[in-house]
Amino acid sequence: MREAFLLLTAISMNGFKEPGMRKVGSYSSMADGDDLDLSRLPDRPKLPIERQRSCDERSMNELSINVRALESFDSLYSPGGMRSGFSTPASTARNPFEPHPIIAEAWEALRRSIVYFKGEPVGTIAAYDHASEEVLNYDQVFVRDFVPSALAFLMNGEPEMVKNFLLKTLYLQGWEKRIDRFKLGEGVMPASFKVLHDPVRKTDTLVADFGESAIGRVAPVDSGFWWIILLRAYTKSTGDSSLAESPECQKGIRLILTLCLSEGFDTFPTLLCADGCSMIDRRMGIYGYPIEIQALFFMALRSALTMLKHDSEGKEFVELIVKRLHALSYHMRTYFWLDFQQLNDIYRYKTEEYSHTAVNKFNVIPDSIPDWVFDFMPTRGGYFIGNVSPARMDFRWFALGNCVAILSSLATPEQSMAVMDLIEERWEELVGEMPLKVTYPAIESHEWRIVTGCDPKNTRWSYHNGGSWPVLLWLLTAACIKTGRPQIARRAIELAESRLLKDSWPEYYDGKLGRYIGKQARKFQTWSIAGYLVSKMMLEDPSHLGMVSLEEDKAMKPLIKRSASWTCPEISLDLIL
Ligand code: GLC
């Protein structure tokens, strides 16, 4: 309450007036019924597990006061945007009347990373690291990396670059994509693109990579999902639905959906993926049904549902999405969820069960449960595990997947709370000295050799193998706000603030506690910068959350009776639509 109180006092004492007409947060003109209603957030769901009262119990009142206070304040926004440049207090724990000094530096660094095509801003490069000899592909605009940049600009009232980016990538989607003699699916979105400037001819050319140049030659499954999620964020933030409704965007959405909703040999509603197809773009044993992709898949489906027109072409997809969401949420909430009780159940599983009555459906052998998970699992808390497939459960924690599960409401309110409980209970392991571990724990020795193929970049507690990635801060912050626990985000942001600028915005940190700048980490990594700014702005103005969050869909209530899942549950279309 202290901060909010101080802010309010400041308003009345100094008699500040609203600095002109400026919007706070996102428009909510989409007819999607998924708006985040902040007034409903204080209704904390009851957990079956007894939870201790954390210091966050006070948080939502505090947040709603903060929103009101911010109607009169600008604080974290960068000059150059539509927001006024009025440099006024930010409610940081340090001193509520001064924005943190690194905010201005962050904005400057973010603006430096902007890429122009024919004079128009179209994205931000992955890293602006002059000191690094090896540029590799860090001079490109990555779709996934641009998301936090886009959110920062949207929150700052600068939607233009985001629109340009969405249109440019849509145009690139239309390219014919080949790897050797094989043609990729039409809907694949690029992993990254580059603008080639020819100073003599004065021309700009776009060059895209769909995985055909990427290390490992894997197509980015996440790109299309991020594109849909960003299109919704743009629409919500600007109130301009004409872009999403344009025939080009509608087609783009449908092409992405065609790739992931087509029928095949699948027995699960989850999406089968190759290793390296997401943010973790090297071999890390995530092949199969990785949580990172399943959560993004779910969020993209729900986002698409809010934007697809119910015309002759869109209608069919709407029906497919509704069916898939129903099955996917059941599958994920039931089989990917792990808490103390569930772990104990798996530990006692019988094996070789045949027929529909099987409890251990995937024939997971209890001996395959790794030792670490028994100690790691708190009595209070839980999470979505990394992967579930026949006789295989990857018990590792993946931060992005769990945060996106909360934001998309793939997680039930109880599960969302339990994930936050876990983060609190296992703070040292999952956050340590730098938020946030991309995966936990690291794989080592023989397992590292087998799983990563002896990858020298992914040694234990480095990079994708248990490294700490500052970009994940924005996802954590959003999840904290959604679950009414901003205090957790504040703690994490303070940790990041103490290092990021000083260390020149590294891509990742290494070590069990995330204390060391990553072995091969780039400096001035754009999404580390943007992720920090987005976290700050969201915490200051929680109504921004609506851009990246979808409310729970009551029609997707979990059916927890495991042995009955083979029956086909009926779908209440009208409730979802
Ligand atoms: C690395 C990361 C990937 C990111 C890219 C550009 O390859 O693993 O997630 O998109 O760098 O920053």
From TrEMBL:
BP GO annotations: sucrose catabolic process
Pfam annotation, one family: Glyco_hydro_100
Entry's Gene Ontology molecular function annotations: endo-alpha-N-acetylgalactosaminidase activity; sucrose alpha-glucosidase activity
Matches recorded under InterPro entries: 6-hairpin_glycosidase_sf, 6hp_glycosidase-like_sf, Glyco_hydro_100
Catalytic activities: Hydrolysis of terminal non-reducing beta-D-fructofuranoside residues in beta-D-fructofuranosides
Keywords tagged on the record: Carbohydrate metabolism, Glycosidase, Hydrolase
EC number: 3.2.1.26
SUPFAM superfamilies in the record: Six-hairpin glycosidases
Function per UniProt: Invertase that cleaves sucrose into glucose and fructose.
PANTHER family: ALKALINE_NEUTRAL INVERTASE D-RELATED, PTHR31916
Family stated for the protein in its record: Belongs to the glycosyl hydrolase 100 family.
The protein's name: Alkaline/neutral invertase
